[in-house]
Design brief:
- By secondary structure, the chain is mostly beta strands.
- The chain folds into two domains: 1-56, no CATH class; 57-128, EutN/Ccml (OB fold (Dihydrolipoamide Acetyltransferase, E2P)), CATH 2.40.50.
- Helix content is 9%, strand content 41%.
- The protein is built from one helix and eight strands, in the order αββββββββ.
- The chain has a five-stranded mixed barrel with strand order 4-5-6-8-7.
- The chain is globular, with a radius of gyration of 15 Å.
Length: 128
Amino acid sequence: MDTKPYIQDSAAGEFFSRLAEGKFQTTRCRACGETHYPPRVLCPRCLGEDLEWVDLPREGTLLAFTWQEAAIRCIKPDVLGLVELEGVGNIFTRIDAPYESLRIGQRVSFSPWTSPDGLALHQFRPVD
């Protein structure tokens, strides 16, 4: 079974390529200044096509988390969570920490991660 994500456009492909280099980036519209996550090839706010790649915040706040027993790409059991990135919004991501050690409102930081099937992904871990 092929577990690689279906790359829908060039922005998604570029996002995964940049993750493989340890970069956590997304697109921003040069016309209106809107930052988009996930990355876009067209600005949904002004329909501008002049987009640039910018760094995403490498720290955020843990808003919610759960643990997953069955997964295609994650290690079983694995912790998944919703992280708020200032100026960007919320992202769903893997959390690299024991479930019991987490709490809502905890600060977390970006950490590159490669899944068992070789895909570069993002994860966050608690800030010490």
